[in-house]
């Protein structure tokens, strides 16, 4: 097998693609093997200075050498150990001594994931900060809120965006938490007991982990527990679904008959219809979200392994882990772009808010009628009848003014006040600020924990 190279895959940034290129993965294998020899030295199981000799010697081992040897041996880590043993003189004999292949593979995954998660978090931080700017800019921009696809109550665009700030901050929090359970050092030998290191396994482990800047798993079998990888893939899928939710919002509000948001820029919308402004960036986010969600099943299937391990996780993880992170990387890149090119049509928002001719304020009138002494269910029935019987171009206000029961308890000034959209936005400003504070605290807390 030619490693895990997905460098030519269509999606994801160069920096994340390179993390999963064969040369990068083999380089991490070598880093772990050298750190292990350092651990053997500290435990008195290898000659002093061998880790430094191996650091120099093993730099010359290329990925294609390892995978060429693997074609014969059928084992990439064994091939690396053989090459080092043959090439690195007296110290070569210590390479991989007492270790199992997944001491190397799982710890190498941790080194790669540490960098990949940092890239994902950095992009997500930028998105949260950009959404915060937009939420504050459009804090008071009126638009209609929709539930079940129907006009519901007035909100502001800033309020709508603040909901995404909160959701993305929760994903940022998850990515900080999962790192503590998946970016760990796995050095424990063939079935996890450290038997080959003759009672000095904990010394070997501690020194190896310290060399790599990682904390150890408390206990493992021959492999690290796969729940950590499943948690990471699931957290990425949750983030993907949140990105998909925002993308769907943009796509819906870009529809010709709504037109409140749209993707601006020079990109061609249609190959044949020049007038179209297709939301292609948002659509790609939604398309890739399907892949991210589908990968969760594979990650969960890798948790149950036979006894102290079997090999069923290995092949799937070579596809699963790189593609989960490359998929999210591309989605975050697209989201960053989408927030840069997103255009807001405030005239369309005002026009759509008037689509029901004021009927979206029925709840406000109902609440006031209850305050005046009507039973809630009676007020609800009355206003439902009024809203459903509005004829022609008649406004909700005009329909109310014709109702003797309502006019018997409310003045015209009270009605005008109740039908003012800005008077029925509730605590939207405080809620926006609360979401922004939550995001700010989450970002700061995560940095402080690292």
Keywords:
two-stranded antiparallel sheet, 450 residues, 18 helices, Ribonucleotide Reductase Protein R1, domain 1, mainly alpha, Fumarase C, Chain A, domain 2, single chain, Fumarase C, Chain B, domain 1, 3 domains
Blueprint (SSEs and pairs):
Layout: H1 14-19, H2 22-42, H3 50-57, H4 63-73, H5 76-87, H6 101-137, E1 142-147, E2 150-156, H7 157-182, H8 201-212, H9 227-253, E3 261-263, H10 280-301, H11 312-341, E4 342-344, H12 346-353, H13 362-371, H14 376-388, H15 396-401, H16 404-407, H17 412-418, H18 428-449
Antiparallel strand pairs: 1-2, 3-4
Helix pairs in contact: 2-3, 2-6, 2-8, 4-5, 6-7, 6-11, 6-18, 7-9, 7-18, 9-10, 9-11, 10-11, 13-14
Short description:
Strand 1 and strand 2 (150-156) form a beta hairpin.
Explain what you see.
The protein is built from 18 helices and 4 strands. The chain is mainly alpha-helical and 450 residues long. The chain folds into 3 domains: 1-98, Orthogonal Bundle (Fumarase C, Chain B, domain 1), CATH 1.10.275.10; 100-186 and 223-351 and 431-449, Fumarase C, Chain A, domain 2 (Up-down Bundle); 359-418, Orthogonal Bundle (Ribonucleotide Reductase Protein R1, domain 1). The strands form 2 sheets. It has a two-stranded antiparallel sheet. A two-stranded antiparallel sheet has the order 3-4. A hairpin with a 2-residue loop joins strand 1 and strand 2 (150-156). The longest helix is centred in the first third of the chain and has 37 residues, at 101-137.
């Amino acid at each position: 097998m030619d490693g895990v190279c997905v460098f030519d895959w269509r999606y994801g940034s160069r920096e994340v693609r390179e993390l999963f290129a064969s040369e990068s993965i083999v380089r991490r294998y070598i880093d772990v093997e050298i750190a292990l020899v350092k651990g053997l030295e500290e435990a008195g199981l290898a000659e002093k200075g061998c880790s430094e000799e191996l650091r120099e010697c093993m730099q010359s081992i290329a990925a294609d050498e390892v995978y060429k040897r693997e074609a014969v041996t059928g084992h990439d880590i064994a091939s690396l150990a053989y090459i080092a043993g043959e090439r690195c003189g007296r110290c070569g004999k210590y390479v991989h001594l007492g270790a199992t292949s997944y001491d190397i593979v799982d710890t190498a995954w941790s080194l790669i994931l540490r960098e990949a998660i940092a890239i994902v978090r950095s992009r997500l931080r930028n998105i949260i900060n950009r959404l915060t700017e937009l939420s504050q800019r459009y804090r008071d921009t009126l638009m209609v809120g929709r539930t079940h696809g129907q006009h519901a109550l007035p909100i502001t665009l800033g309020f709508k965006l603040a909901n995404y700030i909160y959701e993305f901050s929760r994903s940022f929090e998850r990515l900080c938490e999962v790192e503590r359970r998946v970016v760990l050092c796995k050095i424990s030998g063939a079935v996890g007991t450290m038997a080959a290191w003759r009672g000095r396994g904990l010394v070997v482990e501690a020194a190896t982990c310290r060399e790599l800047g990682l904390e150890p798993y408390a206990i493992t079998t021959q492999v690290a527990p796969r729940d950590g990888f499943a948690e990471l893939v699931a957290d990425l899928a949750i983030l993907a679904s949140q990105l998909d939710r925002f993308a769907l919002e943009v796509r819906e509000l870009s529809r010709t008959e709504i037109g409140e948001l749209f993707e601006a820029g020079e990109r061609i919308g249609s190959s044949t219809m020049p007038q179209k402004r297709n939301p292609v960036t948002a659509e790609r986010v939604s398309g890739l979200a399907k892949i991210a969600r589908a990968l969760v099943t594979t990650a969960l299937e890798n948790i149950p392994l036979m006894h102290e391990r079997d090999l069923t996780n290995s092949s799937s993880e070579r596809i699963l882990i790189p593609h989960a992170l490359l998929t999210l990387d591309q989605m975050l890149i697209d989201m960053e772009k989408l927030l840069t090119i997103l255009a807001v049509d405030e005239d369309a928002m005002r026009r759509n808010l008037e689509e029901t001719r004021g009927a979206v304020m029925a709840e406000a009138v109902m609440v006031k009628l209850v305050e005046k002494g009507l039973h809630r269910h009676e007020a609800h029935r009355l206003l439902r009848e009024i809203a459903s019987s509005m004829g022609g171009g008649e406004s909700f206000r005009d329909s109310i003014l014709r109702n003797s029961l309502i006019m018997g308890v409310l003045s015209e000034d009270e009605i005008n006040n109740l039908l003012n959209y800005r008077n029925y936005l509730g605590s939207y400003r405080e809620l926006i600020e609360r979401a922004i504070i939550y995001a700010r605290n989450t970002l700061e807390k995560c940095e402080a924990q690292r």
